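Student: Please help interpret what follows.
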Amino acid sequence: MSQKVPYLLNIKAENFRSEVNVKTSILDPVVANTQNCRFVLAKSGMLHSNAKIEMGFNIVGQEEGDLFLPLNIGVYAAIKRCVLKVGNTILSETNDFNQYMGYRSTLIHPEKQLLIERILTGRSMYYGQTESGRLRLANGQGDQFNIKLPKSDNLRTSPHTRFQIELKELFPLLQDFEIPLFMLQEQVSIELFFDKRFTCSGDLHCTDQLSVDPSSLRLIADYIYYPEEDMENYRKFYENEKKHYVVHQLVKTNVSNNDSKVYQRNLGGSNKVVNKVCIMNSSLDESVTNINTLNNRFTSLAPNKVLGLNLIYNDQQLYTRDLKNRSLISSMCFNANGIPLYIPLQQQTLSIESSDDSKLDNLFFSDLDGMRNYVCLKLNKNKHINSKGIELVQNYELDGDDTIVNRVYLELKKYFSINNGIITSQYLTKA
């Protein structure tokens, strides 16, 4: 019998050459105002996925007041829409991005928000318990959340108050792929469109607003350079190679909160591959700034009762019986994301004991009860959707407005390929 060790089990060191150069560039936007901005990247090296955009704010108004960003999404509240383009080809875009981040931010552990996100992005949904066991807003240092995020006078007088936005949060493509800028003939640009109403304040008489400071905007980008031979091999390997990624498509509808409570509509997605469906419901009246709330208007209303929730596609239901149990819906969200939504039950539902009356600048934490009811459902086997698309069946009992805004984000699969320096992008039509 041969005693030769198989190659895969013959673990040993091998000689190889590894030379990596990283060049950090700080880019000013080519367009910058209070409504939008655009950055253009150099066509060299590879863009590292940890690139960040820095952003600061000005005060709009005359009165003094303690202003801060929504606790659940922080600086992302300022971004209404984000677009990643190569020439005229749109690789990735998300509409109502700040509303979508209301859901995405629930996937961040509260301790990370306390220690890191509170400083970098302004997100700070960290919880504790009172002696009686009731949920409270906390800062890890005392019984109440007493850290003010940042005061208006600090914003007025200090030019150094800055928050950071990671590009991979804006564009899922960058979460696991570095754009080979050196392979492209056309310029890569990043466009951000800003919202006007995203400020929070504990001053009930405050009329001030935060607005993006155009002079504060800059992109901190790392360009990676490998040895010339390796870069050329990379070019040959990825020429005409299809790279898969996901985008989030918004389907937004005003829904009458009538007596029937049953809402059914087509979400689209026909002849595409859809991974997940994220569902949220919010107040219709977005002309109201909601300045005197901790999360402004970036919320999702919890129903008094779930009478039924399901998706229909390819001529069959996703679930054989409609989802009615809140715990089962939470379990489906866990299956869709692989991690739980870090949302207290008090904020997911209206059926349990309310939160403690801890405050931040006169704003009660208990006001968030029933205001973060996000649902994410994963479709079976990553299937291609036929020409009929996806039907949402939602049967909720909701309080409040006669009309609500139903937002659904479809996670669609796309791919791009590069041919002679020209990039093309298409939706994936087969799994």
In short: Residues 122 and 145 are 14 Å apart (CA to CA). The domain at 21-427 is CATH 2.70.9.10 (Adenovirus Type 2 Hexon; domain 4). The first strand starts at residue 21 and ends at 27. The radius of gyration is 24 Å.
